[in-house]
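explain this:
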Amino acid sequence: MECPASSAASVELNPVLRPLTWLLGNWESDIPGEGTFPTIKPFRYTEKLYFSHVGQPVINFMFNAFNAESKKPMHRECGFIRIQPGTNKVAFMIAQNSGLVEIEEGELTGNHLKLQTEKLARISFAKEPHVQQICRVFQLLPDGKLEQTVTMATDNQPLSQHLHITYRRSS
């Protein structure tokens, strides 16, 4: 499913979002990303990211990950990004297909966004071990690529790197 970022082209960007304009648009992994965690077998994945706006002081997003070998759908996330006006404080509100709902907050420094879990909720029958914390870093690299690194802690594992991937802009 493609999510056209061009829908934002006809609507003026809310000025509150100007510090985050570098995220807007469609992104696609140029090479497979790497997933690891102490309790799972390492894996490779591809991912498409969609960041758009409709003129409100919020960015809409959708992340779709696929198995790099089989191309089967894997992880999905969607939600909203807000920035506190006049500050560098950013919040991601995320719903995941695993049954996890999360609020991550953090700080924006130029083209570097670092977030960490503020609140978590999950469906009553979510797979164990339960995620307890997520830290996420987005960074626009000098070559124009976007890098994302995700670390995670569960009921039985401390905070450890889980995902690392880079993206290029796509149409």
